Amino acid sequence: MKILVTGGLGFIGSHTVVELQNEGFEVVIIDDLSNASEDVIQGIVNITGKKPLFEKIDLREKAAVKDFFKKYNDVAGVIHFAASKAVGESVENPLLYYENNISSLVYLLQELKEKPEASFIFSSSCTVYGQAEKMPITEDAPVQAAMSPYGNTKQIGEEIINDTAKVTNISAILLRYFNPVGAHPSAEIGELPLGVPQNLVPFITQTGMGLRQELSVFGNDYPTPDGTAVRDYIHVVDLAKAHVIALQRLLNKKNVQKVETFNLGTGTGSSVLEVIHSFEKVSDKKLPYIIKPRREGDITEAYANTDKANNVLGWKAQLTLDEAMSSAWEWEQKVRNK
Ligand code: UD1
């Protein structure tokens, strides 16, 4: 069965391609290479022994999307990762985010609605909850006004899919990720941010390598046990496996609603200092860091209630924060020593 993975050379996309191929799916990747390298294909081949099909397409080009579905008229399902994801950049350049993240989604759905049936998995984010009132966060926690254009594209994306599924043969699962971290245990694929990393874990591993002088810990005056902000860090391999399970649920028509939503997290919150300590433990290195003021737009805490994913989807995160940090560190060392 052929599955389209958009953004399949990116961080979460590439790990999902590996898990799909391991489960026997044939994969065709669309990626515009704006934030990924074609070399990732070799990493996927090294892990799975199989080469995915690849088309370099910018999904903002409606005609190219149309042509793709003419060429691959046997695509049974779509996992849609392709999107811009830097919060700060989205504030600077909102139209880039609205164009890239929204028009690509619309063009894909326009093609899928012509099919007798279609299964669609969407990369959403816990950012839709803002600072939720209650921890852990359940799927029915209210969606709050987005704090950035990036976050808004995830909310609007969910609405577009809900509206479209009502009147078409498209069934969808919206996956709200908490904080994806780590790398494949083979160190063949991982996260490769362009420029200075904005996210915590790549900044830590780059500091461990000496590429950055020190980590800034944004705020130690939060109302949390150690004063630093708390997130739910989920290993990217666990996250990738959830996509395969979600896709199989749709393909096997096990879904009970046209659109279903699941939180993907571990259910455990970790503070910034706990993440640093985990890195120090697995790398046997002291990480230089300083305390800085809170970062604008950051929330105090977010961690998932995973009951729905556990009980309905039948998926549970298996890997620990230490395993995630250790794999991220292996990957960082391998990339820098190439
Ligand atoms: C952010 C986005 C989220 C997005 C995710 C992508 C928001 C509010 N957050 O999550 O939507 O899906 O990135 O991975 O839109 N930190 C430091 N020093 C650093 C970097 C981070 O102390 O150099 C702290 C942050 O203040 C935060 C924690 O580490 O408390 C995690 O930060 P980060 O990895 O950037 O993820 P989020 O902001 O949670």
Write a structural description.
By secondary structure, this protein is an alpha/beta fold. The chain is built from eleven helices and 13 strands. Helix 1 runs parallel beside helix 2 (40-48). The protein is globular and about 55 Å long. The structure holds uridine-diphosphate-N-acetylglucosamine. The site of uridine-diphosphate-N-acetylglucosamine has 22 residues, from helix 7 and strand 8. Pathway: Carbohydrate metabolism; galactose metabolism. Pfam families: GDP_Man_Dehyd. It is an enzyme of class 5 (isomerase).
Strand order of the largest sheet: 3-2-1-4-5-6-11
Summing up helix and strand content along with how strands pair, one would put the structural category as: alpha/beta
CATH topology of the largest domain: Rossmann fold
Q: Which small molecules are bound?
A: uridine-diphosphate-N-acetylglucosamine
CATH superfamily caption of the largest domain: NAD(P)-binding Rossmann-like Domain
**Cα Rg:** 19 Å
Architecture (CATH level 2) name of the largest domain: 3-Layer(aba) Sandwich
Shape: globular
Unreliable residue stretches: none
Domain count? 2
Helix content, binned percent = 25-40%
